[in-house]
Amino acid sequence: MDSGDSSEESPIQAKKGKSKTPRKPKASVLKQKSPAEFFAENKNIAGFDNPGKSLYTTVRELVENALDSAESIAELPLVEVTIEEINKSKFNSMIGLIDRERIDEALYGDFETDKAREKRLAKEARLQEVQAKNAALGKKVKEPTSAKAVKGRGEASFYRVTCKDNGRGMPHDDIPNMFGRVLSGTKYGLKQTRGKFGLGAKMALIWSKMSTGLPIEISSSMKGQNYTSFCRLDIDIHRNIPHIHLHEKRDDKEQWHGAEIQVVIEGNWTTYRSKILHYMRQMAVITPYAQFMFRFVSDTSDKTVSIRFTRRTDVMPAVPLETKYHPSAVDLLLIKRLIGETTKQNLLQFLQHEFVNIGKSHAERLIGEMGPDFSPKTLVKSLTPQQIVRIHQLFRQAKFDDPSGDCLSPAGEYNLRLGIIKELHPDMVATYTASAQVFEGHPFIVEAGVSLGGKDVKQGLNIFRFANRIPLLFEQGADVVTRTAMKRINWNIYKINQTQDKIGVFVSIVSTKIPFKGTGKEYIGDDISEIATAVKTSIRQCCAQLKSKIVKKIQAREQQERKRNLSKYIGDATGAIYEILKESSQLHVKKKKLMEVKDEDAEILQKVSSRIITKEILSEKLAQHVEQVDYEMAMEYATQSGVREEPRENIYLQALEPQKNFTDFHSPVFVFRLFQ
Ligand SMILES: Nc1ncnc2c1ncn2[C@@H]1O[C@H](COP(=O)(O)OP(=O)(O)OP(=O)(O)O)[C@@H](O)[C@H]1O
Hints:
Shape: extended
Bound molecules: adenosine-5'-triphosphate
Radius of gyration: 36 Å
CATH superfamily of the largest domain: Histidine kinase-like ATPase, C-terminal domain
Structural class: alpha+beta
Largest sheet: 8 strands, mixed
Strand order of the largest sheet: 5-4-3-6-2-1-7-8
Number of strands: 18
Helix content: 25-40%
Number of domains: 4
Distance between the termini: 64 Å
């Protein structure tokens, strides 16, 4: 398997050896690798970089398969994910290995020499001292990390990951190939799906084979079947074929349809816990019509986690449709493949039926342009390699209408908004769906949401990215969404403070081809101008909606503050005025004749002494006056800023389903659209 055979030595290494005559380098031997071998050796390509990431990717692959499966039969998804921690002795008993006590401690990676122990204890004592001092000064004290708690290099953690769904299930006979043959799947057509490569589930199996040696177990039942298929298998890495341990039909007593996949792998819950929980939460945001049950089960009960992400709506995006290729999205190889697969006889039919946006007359014109050795009747299977190159050249140069986004299935503004509200509880949220656009012949749709405030949201930008309704959690920095939100949106002009406010930015991109960058399906590059522009426009549209709400809120707050400021002094002012009035009224009674008091003032003083004017009445009148002044100030402000009528506000409506039959009613201030 390993081409760099360890027995081989380089000429440089050989020189260092005792022998004076350098060994001859062996002639390189031609070897082949199976796809399974390749991915086993380069598992980071598929997101299996280390045990922690492998646990995360396994969960992700199984959940995405479960959703694809339920949605393919238009069933509201119900997905149950359980990660069960398996301690070492349980794992050993599972594989039939007897637990052995350590005899020669010094053999182990975590062995501590007396000197090292002394050093560690001294360090711990010093740390404790510092902490005691800090505690005495009322400073924050960090939890001490005991060096003993650090695991030895060889101490692995094992987990049983189970994912159960209510999807389509799988045909009994196909199961072994679906799980035991790398690069086999049912999602290769030109269609918006979460899965694409026919790799994910097999990678989980390869990782389990590499880390625990245990097989994968699949239970599945399809609608209308009276049995459940059960299959336990692993993969023959060298031959890239399934190695079946057990494959049988069992009674389906529950009338269940769906699949349950179970795999035991090495992982690291401690380091990837938050990533896995974030992933589940973000999946719940973009899939509010699904019900997710997530459990982490451990012998240590305080580690146990159980979270239900409840379904909030029955409105499910339409099932994405398989579409044909756009002429500008094909290469030579693809044209050859389409020629090989087509059922059409001649070139005219082939062009019309195997591609989108080529009608009959358009096809005739294209054939005319190809040259004299082409005719509408040319048999497509008889095309020479040169002729195929000519077709390809013309496809690259000719003008075609853009493909429509009808085959795509975005989450929908309704679902996106609902998902954000249900998981984040923001103070404000705005959403926007851009119309379908095209990149290299592939249609794509960008949807965006921007929220302010909410639970578990940090100050500043909180970016949530989705591609074909999969949350993307890694490689955030280089992603088109992150870059756009950080660099190309002037948040200030929308009255949003980029560093102080808790801003949620949600961008979901769906397409028949997501132009992922890098090796994993982790981020979309910033270099595709069509996508970058659509992302920017969508975020800005959301911000514009929020701005009108924010301005209203600021005005209301200012008015409240003005009123509060005035009201604040009512008590003191009343007290002071009343005291003066009281004193004056007493004086007035005593020296009535001596004092020169105007009639109306005398009347007031009279009312004060006869308690017709009391402190309470005075306070009440002042409060009424503040109310009046406040109203007048608000009116004056409104007149100055040009608002002469009731304030207007834009409303943003989005149809739940893109329907074409409608009637518009126009008024000077709005258009009312009625769908039939
Ligand atoms: N839960 C499931 N329900 C029904 N079919 C499933 C399920 N899980 C896997 N499959 C089938 O097995 C095939 C292989 O799955 P796998 O995860 O290896 O690849 P994929 O989902 O097609 O693509 P990707 O590697 O991009 O995820 C799928 O195409 C699907 O047909």
